[in-house]
Amino acid sequence: MVTLAHGRHEHLRGQHRTLAAATRPPDDYVVVAMDDPAIVPTNVDGLRSRVLRVATDPGGLPLARARNRGVRAALDAGADVVVCLDVDCLAGPDLVASYAERVLAHPRTVWQGPVTYLAPPPDGGYPLADLTSLDDPHPGRPAPAPGAVSWDADPDLFWSLSFALSPAAWATAGGFDPEYVGYGAEDTDFGRRLVASGLGLAWDGAARAFHQHHPVSRPPVEHLDDILRNAALFHRRWGAWPMLGWLEEFERRGLASYDGLRWTVTDAR
């Protein structure tokens, strides 16, 4: 299990608790702390985390580089299945077990699981022992029922919130591209590279996760520079613009403009 974190300490603690209570807890829990010395190894009900440290980048959080570091550490420790779960995600009770079963049976397929975006927690927090009562997967992604799978997934819908793969699949794909720094596009790039490398991409209905609430901006204007920079990199690689809805909304707000060749930040910003 690999998780990246910068802040979100309460979310990380919640995730740790759900992993420890899972039908199959992970054998190894790697937390990659990006420029966050407050994150330290912890033990919850016998599941101990280990913490790797990655310095930040002037362009933003080095998500791709940090994820590569975490997966490499898990593989070096002997993992035959690597699960990556966003720090905001609580693990459903069967997430680790189901991912392990799917990856071992289909090692040349990369697996994703449905994610429910939770409302703000009630007094006392989310019911960690009964997360399935909150199940309502994101409507923009496939969500097969528990026990079912969905094959031939769209690589442009790949998300790094929750996925699992084998060492062979990771080696074939070559990891995430560390040229992507800050927010946006590194996961869509990875999805395309998976398919271009001849790997399968599928959804596992039993590997369900629950994204803890936090405030967001729509569009994420605080990441304007990251998004334009990463979108340009993606366009050079693939000949298409990712995150187009956000780019067009930036343009509508006068924050960015498109001249037919490139997106640029406007003086209005």
Automatic annotation (TrEMBL):
The keyword Protein biosynthesis is assigned to this record: no
One GO MF term attached to the UniProt entry: glycosyltransferase activity
Residue ranges constituting the Galactosyltransferase C-terminal domain according to the UniProt record: 161-201
One Pfam family per UniProt: Glyco_transf_7C
Keyword Electron transport found: no
Keyword entries, A-Z: Glycosyltransferase, Transferase
InterPro entries, A to Z: Galactosyl_T_C (IPR027791), Nucleotide-diphossugar_trans (IPR029044)
Metabolic or biological pathway: Cell wall biogenesis; cell wall polysaccharide biosynthesis
PANTHER family: GALACTOFURANOSYLTRANSFERASE GLFT2, RHAMNOSYLTRANSFERASE WBBL
Similarity section: Belongs to the glycosyltransferase 2 family.
Protein name, as recorded: Glycosyltransferase, GT2 family
Organism listed in the record: Nocardioides lianchengensis
